[in-house]
Amino acid sequence: MSRRRKHGEAEDNSEIDLTPMLDVVFIMLIFFIVTASFVKEKVIDTTIPPKNEQQTPPDEDNPSIVVTIRSNDEIWMEDRRIDVRAVRANIERMHAEHPKAAVVVRAHIKSTAKMYIAIADAAREADVFNIALVPYEEKI
Fold first, then answer.
1. What DSSP character marks residue 14?
2. CB distance 66 to 104 below 8 Å
3. Per-domain residue ranges of the chain
């Protein structure tokens, strides 16, 4: 009879307790939910203004420094293509001619944000902090 009791006790202790494993799984689930909620994407929000039939003529006393970015990330200033490294020098030159001029970046909607940021950084290095982004779309 004593053999049966020992054997019966061994069977009762052989069950696996899943409670600690479930506790760990729930703690990991809570950790991933909390960390995932803090991830936010960084984007530049641009809205194209509606087309206005009666556009105001540009102010000739205070012209803007216009930098155009085409869809293939080419940079154009004053009807000529320039390199990204020459943007700062051109902005400095044009800003010396018109000290109150703002930099207007006309970026094609298919151009990359990398080019806009490079131009904005070059303008800030040239001590021009009034920078505007104007998205456009070419008509074919």
1. T
2. yes
3. 65-136
The CA distance from 66 to 84, in Å, is: 14
User: What does the pLDDT read at residue 11?
Assistant: 55
Q: What is the pTM of this model?
A: 0.58
Per-chain mean pLDDT for the chain: 80
Q: What is the pLDDT of residues 36-60, one digit of tens each?
A: 766 666 666 655 556 665 445 555 6
How many CA within 13 A on the CB side of residue 16? 4
Q: State the pLDDT at residue 137.
A: 82
* Phi and psi, residue 105, nearest 5°: -100, 110
DSSP 47-97: -PPPP-SSPPPP-SSS--EEEEE-TT--EEETTEEE-GGGHHHHHHHHHHH
Phi/psi-derived region of residue 66, left when phi > 0, alpha when psi is between -120 and 50, beta in every other case: beta
Report the alpha-carbon distance of residue 140 to residue 12 in Å, rounded.
81
Count the Cβ atoms, other than its own, within 10 Å of residue 9. Answer: 10
The topology (CATH level 3) of 65-136 is Nucleotidyltransferase; domain 5 (3.30.420)
